[in-house]
Design a protein that fits this description.
The chain has about 260 residues and is mostly beta strands. It contains 3 helices and 12 strands. About 10% of the residues lie in helices and about 40% in strands. About 35% of the residues are buried. The N terminus is likely disordered.
Length: about 260
């Protein structure tokens, strides 16, 4: 009798895991029996605003692996960013609807290059963003703020370290943004500022920091930028949208990034 009871309990447990593994995970069901941790460099990124299923490709043990993440808005809300060349460690599982050695669904990812990290799915494979409002606010009683822990912006975001900035070159320049290179899937968030016929490549800060402060710059915007030279580019201390007067402070007077404080 005890033997039959144990067998029934085992079958029930297997059935429960199978049901959990078949839960939708954005790109399809999750096969929890294949959960594993992979690490390696990112070779390609597919992320942009409005994209429903962003992800990245990495070089892992066994070859190239395409990793599906979650909604773009959720990644922004969690302050997660990744760029080509970044080193990542990801807990992943196979997708029941898209089997194959070259594709996996992420449960959580840590970017060891810039320190950002994101939890995407629970132990049962269910997406953790369900019930949360877009935009990173509080949703369903479990929403989280826009920014990651301070100090985790690290090397990303087109930043320059304070020791690399020449404070003797600090100046305010007014002009027009002729190009904007930024977003969750870009490693450097920079603008090209044309002032008096001269182009300046200006590093701003991490994408999550701009998003948290509700600041957005577009090509054609008239700007006033307080900046100093840093290696082959300029580092913005503050940037002001001339039309609206909105100003975003990026660094203190010593050149230290405010998003790291």
């Amino acid at each position: 009798m005890k033997k039959w009871t144990v067998s029934i309990l085992v079958l029930a447990l297997v059935s429960t895991l199978a049901l959990a593994g078949s839960g939708k995970g954005g790109g399809g069901g999750i096969d929890l029996s294949t959960v594993r941790t992979v690490s390696g460099p990112v070779t390609a990124v597919s992320m942009q605003q409005g994209q429903g299923h962003p992800g990245f490709t990495m070089r892992a043990e066994g070859g190239s692996l395409e990793v599906h993440l979650g909604p773009y808005w959720y990644l922004v809300a969690q302050g997660f960013s990744v760029g080509v060349g970044d080193q990542v460690a990801a807990t992943v599982a196979d997708c029941a609807q898209r089997s194959g050695a070259g594709y996996a669904v992420a449960l959580q990812v840590t970017n060891t290059t810039n320190g950002s990290q994101v939890v995407l799915r629970g132990e049962n494979g269910q997406p953790v963003w369900k019930g949360r409002r877009r935009g990173g606010g509080q949703g369903g009683g479990s929403g989280q703020g826009m920014a990651p822990e301070k100090g985790k912006a690290g090397k990303g975001g087109g930043t320059c370290r304070g020791s690399q900035i020449d404070l003797a070159t600090l100046q305010e320049v007014t002009g027009t943004a002729t190009a904007v290179n930024g977003g969750l899937g870009t490693k450097s968030n920079t603008i090209t500022l044309n002032a008096g016929g001269q182009d300046y490549a200006v590093a701003l800060g991490p994408f999550w920091y701009l998003q948290q402060n509700g600041f957005q710059v577009q090509g054609g915007d008239a700007l006033a930028v307080r900046m100093a030279q840093c290696s082959d580019r300029w580092a913005a201390f503050s940037i002001t949208l001339t039309a609206s007067g909105q100003t975003l402070q990026l660094r203190d007077e010593a050149g230290y990034p405010l998003w790291l404080k």
